[in-house]
Amino acid sequence: MRLYSFFNSSTSYRVRIALALKGLPHDYQGVNIRTLAHREADYVELNPSRSVPLLRDGDFSLGQSLAIIDYLDARHPEPRLIPADARLRARVLELSHAIACDIHPVNNLRVLRYLQDALGVSAGQKDAWYRHWIREGMAMVEDLLARHGAGPYCFGEAPTLADCCLVPQMANALRMGCDLSACPRALAVHEYCLAQPAFARAAPSTQPDFTA
Ligand SMILES: N[C@@H](CCC(=O)N[C@@H](CS)C(=O)NCC(=O)O)C(=O)O
């Protein structure tokens, strides 16, 4: 398998965590989204989503991080990241979608670029936008964790898709200087995960395309 990824991309980071938790060997292909490599014709041919990550498994190409993790879970079920139990699965998807569908899209690179380049907002206004949506979104995530989660991971003693989504979102928020003091449970899960070898292997700073 080959993963097309950018070290700092939280959606790529989700898939890197899933691959590491499952111990699946793969090549790493860096795609620099800062220089718009994800919009070049040969890449778009492989990934119509014009984004990272992209997984290639033989002649099968798949974009969208949650679809990729679902595919990996179906092909390599151990350890399961999307639980079989109907209610636990629903909780895991609820939190994962809160991050992947509600928080991440409004702070994605193309949205921030449009704010600055097309709408002419200042760097300060752009940062205020970023922090606002993190504060709103993470309050929702913290509520979900406080009501339904327990244990060192989001939902118990084993990592799930929810942890694959939470850790990269927290990394982004912390990198952007967001105040997460109102999210103690999310901070505790994040800290616990970072100490686990699979999460460490997936971290931005350990990727081949990492630049400081
Ligand atoms: N829903 C997609 C989002 C993928 C995505 O937008 N990734 C970001 C990096 S985290 C990207 O490639 N952004 C490029 C851009 O916004 O132009 C997924 O979960 O894979």
Portion in helices: 40-55%
Helix-strand sequence = EHEHEEHHHHHHH
**Class by helix and strand content?**
alpha+beta
Which value, in Å, is the CA radius of gyration? 17 Å
Question: How many beta strands in the DSSP annotation?
Answer: 4
Overall form: globular
Beta-strand content bin: 5-15%
Strand order of the largest sheet: 2-1-3-4
Biggest sheet layout = 4 strands, mixed
Question: Could you say which small molecules are bound to this protein?
Answer: glutathione
If you average the pLDDT, what whole number results? 97
* DSSP summary: helix tally: 9
Which blocks of ≥5 consecutive residues have pLDDT under 50? none
* Beginning-to-end CA distance, first to last residue: 27 Å
Please tell me about this protein's structure:
The chain is of the alpha+beta class. 55% of the residues lie in helices and 8% in strands. It is globular, with a radius of gyration of 17 Å. The site of glutathione has 15 residues, from helix 1, helix 3 and helix 5.
